[in-house]
Amino acid sequence: MVDLRIGILEGDDIGHEIVPASVRIARAAAAAEGLSIEWVDVPIGRRALDTHGHTMPEGTLETLGGLDGWILGPIGHQTYPKVPEAINPHPILRKRFDLFANVRPSRSYPGIGAIYDDIDLVIVRENNEGFQPDRNVVAGSGEFRPTEDVTISVRVITKEGSRKVVRAALDLARARRKRLTLVHKNTVFKLGCGMFVESAYEVAREYPDVEVDEVIVDTMAMRLVRDPQSFDVVVTTNMFGDILTDEAAGLVGGLGMAPGLCIGRGSIAMAQATHGSAPDIAGKGIANPYAMIESTRMMFEWLGIKREIPAAIATAARMKQGIERALADPETRTPDINGTASQDGMVEGILQGLEAMHAHA
Ligand code: NAD
Hints:
- The structure is a single chain.
- By secondary structure, the protein is of the alpha/beta class.
- Helices cover 41% and strands 17% of the residues.
- The chain contains eleven helices and twelve strands.
- The strands form two sheets. It has a ten-stranded mixed sheet with strand order 2-1-3-12-11-4-5-10-8-9, sandwiched between helices. The chain has a two-stranded antiparallel sheet with strand order 6-7.
- The longest helix is centred in the N-terminal third of the chain and has 19 residues.
- The two termini are 27 Å apart.
- Bound molecules: nicotinamide-adenine-dinucleotide (NAD).
- Nicotinamide-adenine-dinucleotide binds next to loops.
């Protein structure tokens, strides 16, 4: 019997490089820690359109439903052909598996071009409602054009959706520095953001050990630049979270440093970096694999805690050591983070870091 069944969904463009790199590192760390994993290749994206006639071939959701988690590479849907078979799969996956919380950490490491040395925050972005028209309604789209020159975009906020994501953020804050910041704009969106904030305080009553404060989103955009060190866990609605997480990534070295884990109430997790498929650098061997590898590491840690598998927690810890070792040396860092290494060079650096720990242990 295997400990975990994990899917490999490469996605597009740099996904074909950074996802295999993440699997390579996870395999090595898992082997060293005695974690047995069954890896399952699941075709998705542009290549799946060519080979299976659909960017999310029939049977994908059923296959994923039988797994414990999966690594989803970035999806370059902007350049998909305009045919019904070419859809963006990730909103469907987030929705189908109720992965309502997108946990996106930003952390500074020395020498990589972070704007401050001591940033360590996590933004928890609501994933399945809000302003995202491809997932906030059951059928059709939350965006429509009643006349040629009028467009209406609907933002959906629910009590249940708000409570769920805030609870996930409070659990995370409890395991960290016990501070949670609610980001919203209830000064203007009195009903929508109002409901989010009210629901948040309702749940927060169950967490008296976590200190909760609030910041209006425009002020937050400024404060993230001025004093990002003052934040621990931040929770916000979908679109605000989408924008603020890229801003936070910019503070710590750019999109290559922006990992993410999509989670829900169940014990399935989806590792998905914040960045897109970076077609401008695909195939050049210079994409920074950190975000995808760290997302994968977060998945093993989360699954290990959730399912009480100590070897998965140890695998994540070993990956962390390898990653930190590679990040500490410009010769094992990619150029976007002040390094001289190719992507392969960085992966080798991480692998050596894993072994070094093994030798040390
Ligand atoms: P992008 O995130 O792909 O790239 C923005 C910039 O950041 C580019 O200059 C790129 O080279 C750089 N970058 C991104 N990841 C990097 C990495 N790991 N290492 C080094 N540099 C990196 O955003 P985009 O160019 O606006 O979008 C490209 C495609 O990705 C589009 O089709 C878009 O729709 C899609 N997209 C997908 C997701 C997702 O799957 N989660 C998210 C955002 C965009």
